[in-house]
Amino acid sequence: MTVFKSPGSGSKFVLPRRSLLKGGAALGMSTALGAPFINRLFAAEEHPLAGQSIEMNILGIAGWVPSSLGVKMSPLFADFVKEKYGYNVSFAFAEAPFSDLFQKAATSLATKSQEYNIIISDSQWLGALAKPGWILKLNDVIEKNPALQLEWYSQTVVDTYMTYPDGTKDIWGLPQEGDVEALYVRKDWLEDPKEREAFQAKYGKPLPQTFEDFDALTMDEFEKIAEFFTRPDDQRWGFAQQYSRVYDFATCAFNNFLWSRGGEIWDPATGQIEGILNTQQNADSLQAFKDWLKYCPPGATNYGIAEGIDVFTQGKVFSTIQWAAVGSAMITEELKGKVLVVPPPKHGTGDAAKRICSMGGQPWVINAFNDEKKMRVAIDFMNWWYQPDTAVEFAKRGGNPCDKATLSRDDFNDINPWNQTYKFMLEEGRSRDFWHDPKYSEMLAIQQEGYSSFVTGQSSDPKAVLDYIACAQQQILSDEGVAKTAPSDACATTSL
């Protein structure tokens, strides 16, 4: 799609300094109008864009249904503002894969370009986009817009998609797509009388059948099911998860093991990683993560999101841990009624068993260099996106809203097969995000390298791999000034 580019200079407004990142550079633009833009924008006045036509551009994730929904629903927004405010708006959509999207956004924003007026950012990029002053700080906007003063479903939503630095009240994003890890299983295989009889005979217990059965399931119990359905001679396997070195695929999948087994990846208050990530407990979790390859199809070390969708929809695996956001791709027309979407199994035994999985999903962020007209449309769009009717329409098209009112509707669980699990995993304490630090991409690259080295057999010692990652990440945060301590002397000898 050809993307319309508006001029990168000549903007006619200046945002108050308090609306930008504290300590960041001012935009350096001037205005002939007396009142600050944010204040004028929501004064009681006829809409300043009445009678005009505006072209807007959204940058989103290629091949990612929730990203494209924002554009596919934009004609509804155009109708809304035409009727309510009397102006015309059209949207173009630029895109890039997860692994390339940040660089595409950063390259444009670094020049103060208006090439992308609204961006669908991955949650971990908030720091990298906010710190240079590239995106609009939203506190003042929210304060002046009642439609944006929502009660979110959980604090996890706020922590993941909205705030930077972590633990502060500085808001830079608004949830576009909520997302959690879910376990997709073949319900028709579970209900097959022959399979049920054979499993009962082999393990002395029935196959789980319901959401509640899987909620209570531990990894040890689930492993028996994965083993039972692993039949290489029939080209069937019991399980699949993401092990790929691309982007954050292996990291998100391994975090499910690490956190659920009691580990941590860092101390965000001090920036300390060494001694926290590279524990023997976490090394044991990394080994367990690799051990599940025995229930996966050949080539699983290269599995990312797309590969997981393929093997599941092709009937090659009984189950896979996959994002709720891709539910519409996972449950094809042929599989409707044959798939159960449930919480991933808990790790541990008894009352101590727990599940803590990686958060996915993306926030909307607004280009801080938008001219006055495009900034007005962007904020109008956000006001519209969080209208109750818009949120329900988004859900009906396969999206995952995050506001409490929509998720608390009596009919929400029935809109999509994954909605009950999405809500369950979105509750506080069941899912979490990692690093919003501006050095996110550098830290992630080191981590992905290490995890991939171990699961592919290039490295054999999980503790040594974690030592290597922890030392390299400690150096990154030390150089940045976030970590209070430099890497220890022991780091001088670490390698993969």
Automatic annotation (TrEMBL):
Coiled-coil ranges (or none): none
Keywords assigned: Periplasm, Signal, Transport
Places the protein is found: Periplasm
Protein's UniProt keywords contain Chaperone: no
Protein name: ABC transporter substrate-binding protein
Similarity comment text for this entry: Belongs to the bacterial solute-binding protein 1 family.
Transport among keywords: yes
Source organism, top-level taxon: Bacteria
